[in-house]
Amino acid sequence: MNATTTSTPPLRRVLYHHRTQGKAVEGVHIRGITDALRAMGVAVDVVSVPGADPYASPKAMSPTQQARWWMKIVTRLPEPLFELAELAYNAVAGLRIVRYLREHDDLELIYERYSLFLFITVWLAKRRGLPIILEINDSAAVHRVRPLHLGWLARRIERWTLRNASGLVFVSGLFRDRVTQAHGHIAPSIVTPNAANIDKFSFSEAERRETRAKWGLEGHVVCGYLGAFVPWHAIDQFVYRIADRLKATPHLKLLLVGDGATFDTVAKFVHDRGLDQQILLTGRVPHDDVPGLLAAMDLAVLPSAGDYTSPVKLFEFMACGIPPIAPDFSPIQEVLVENQTGWMFKAGNLDAAVDAVIERSADRERLAEVGRNARAYIAAERQWRHNVLQLIEFKQAVTQPAALPVHAVAG
Fold first, then answer.
1. Which ranges carry the Glycosyltransferase subfamily 4-like N-terminal domain (predicted)?
2. Which residues of 323-345 are buried (b: 16+ CB within 10 A; e: fewer)?
């Protein structure tokens, strides 16, 4: 697809609606889409939960710590009450969107980050004759960390919403397949993986030397990790498995960036095993500080991921020219080319992940070559402007239904 822009904006105005706190990975995605649209001259307005601002200066705190007081109360509600609060948010969103629509008669597209129990935006769009495209990152059809209590209601609302939207954007083909299997007929859809902007993940050789000197990494091959320390990311299990092999590979150091539920346990394990000089734990850092830490890495590992998700950190590693070693889940296979832009191991087999890290760390020239390939791929195909160009093309197609098949794949 041609990534060039013209002097005439492809759309006059877009409303981006979401019900998230706008922090962490969700904030990265929101900023990626809105910034890319604005760079093309499109006026973009964001309507969200009151107090949620993805452009607020990121802090070295978790999204829950950054939330407003009332958000903290809501997230701690028992599950049935939490889901009723999600449902009640339709009234809040409806009022805010109706007010917005009264003030803007040049709106050409509503783009919404879909959330469970949220239907009001689609209902209003249909009533006003406006195209609405939903970005699907969650669903009642897939496993969730927070189990559903009112699953029957969530599924019923979701089925109506996904059938009545103008179009749907899924982050992976597997995710779309599962949602389609659960709901049958849904609106036309595309598959668009996540992205990363090259300019935000570029660094000089001087910056690399500075970061490596700061963390005592000179002369070593550095394998990095970027993300939350939570059970489903399995970084704790990866550390436990690689620990006994690190003393036999003194050229290799781990630089693990992030925090979370398993962080303290991992930190204690590393200290007790006397590995503090070979496994470096940064704790939580602001997102803007991440590129500096990435500058020190020679390769990166993703021990696990959701089997239907598109990990943003995978794209950020590649944008930096850091070759990733990742599980062979279907969404990762849609992006990564084995031995060309990274390497994959059998999902769930962390011993294989350890083997791959140790084996690849022995060949610095090959790491650099694969890293360059990965960065070139992101530059050419997977920056946020590419996702937005696909979105604009899709919007044009769903407003001309005769030209669009039921399922259209982009990416």
1. 27-194
2. bbbbbbbebbbbbbeeeebbbbb
Give the domains, in start order, of the chain with CATH numbers: 13-195+384-403 (3.40.50.2000), 198-381 (3.40.50.2000)
- pLDDT tens, position by position, 36-80: 999 999 999 999 887 666 666 555 444 444 445 555 666 777 778
User: Cα dihedral sign for 81, 82, 87, 92?
Assistant: positive
322 within 8 A of 371, measured Cβ to Cβ: yes
What is the rounded CA–CA span in Å between residue 96 and residue 308?
A: 32
In order of 88, 266, 267, 378, the CA distances from 258 in angstroms are 34, 12, 12, 24
Give the pLDDT score at 20: 85
H or E element that contains 69: helix 69-75
Long-range contacts of 209-218 (CB under 8 A, 24+ apart): 211/292, 211/293, 211/295, 211/296, 212/295, 212/296, 215/255, 215/280, 215/296, 216/277, 216/280, 217/253, 217/255, 217/280, 217/296
pTM, 2 dp: 0.89
